[in-house]
Amino acid sequence: MDPALRGGCAPELVAIFASFGKGVFIEAPFHVAYGRNLVLGDGVYMNAGCVVLDTAPVRIGRRTMLGPAVHIYCADHAHGPEERRRGFERALPVNIGEDVWIGGGAILLPGVTVGDGALIGAGSVVTRDVASGARVAGNPARQI
Fold first, then answer.
1. What is the DSSP secondary structure assignment for residue 130, as one 8-state letter?
2. Parallel, antiparallel or unpaired: strands 94-96 and 58-60
3. What is d(CA 123, CA 39) in angstroms, rounded to the nearest whole number?
4. Which of 1, 14, 50, 98 would be a feasible disulfide site paired with 61, CB 3.0-4.6 Å?
5. 82 three-state secondary structure
6. Do 27 and 6 contact (CB within 8 A), yes or no?
7. Domain limits for position 17
8. Cross-strand partners of 98
9. What is the pLDDT of residue 85?
10. What is the CATH number of the domain that holds 134?
11. Which helix (H) or strand (E) element contains residue 90?
């Protein structure tokens, strides 16, 4: 792939992703658990310090922008102590639409879907789906 179309990302980084769109730009440092479960649409921008724990599929739509230190988690551990002792864990996909803005320090939890054109305020913890065009903020994130 032409480096200009990769946003200057190293070929070794590009090779680990399930899909890597044109014009994607990822600021260092960046952490991804596997990469093979991560799909990045054209023009995705990820600011410094983003973390994607892609134990399930993660899809980030075209022209979506992530502020610094945004974390996306797919792993979900048991909530009760008995299940945790037995080692229960599952992974749920995270889907982020097109033209989404996610403010710095936001955390998206397992199984969340964010609709096209949504805005997530800095520092928010997204525990449930966000509708297209919605603006949410807070912990847990609520519509504003």
1. B
2. parallel
3. 24
4. 98
5. helix
6. no
7. 3-143
8. none
9. 87
10. 2.160.10.10
11. strand 89-91
Q: What's the number of domains the chain is made of?
A: 1
Q: Give the closest residue to 16 by CA, choosing from 118, 26, 49, 114.
A: 26
At 69, list the tokens.
């230190």
- Mean pLDDT per segment of 10 residues, for the chain of length 144 residues? 53 86 94 96 97 98 98 92 86 98 98 98 98 98 96
* Among 31, 71, 77, 79, the one annotated catalytic: 77
- DSSP for 1-56, written as a single string: --GGGGTT--HHHHHHSSEE-TT-EEPSSEEES-STTEEE-TT-EE-TTEEEE-SS
Which pairs count as long-range contacts for 14-23, CB under 8 Å and 24+ apart, including other chains? 18/57, 21/62
Catalytic residue flag (residue 77): yes
The encoded tokens of residue 97 equal 């639409």
What are the residues whose beta carbons fall under 8 Å from the beta carbon of 23, sequence distance 6 or more?
5, 7, 42, 43
Cα–Cα distance between 57 and 125 in angstroms, integer?
19
* Sign of the torsion formed by the C-alpha atoms of 44, 123, 52 and 136: negative
* Dihedral over alpha carbons 55, 90, 132, 125 (to 10 degrees): -90
pTM here?
0.91
| pLDDT confidence of residue 121 | 98
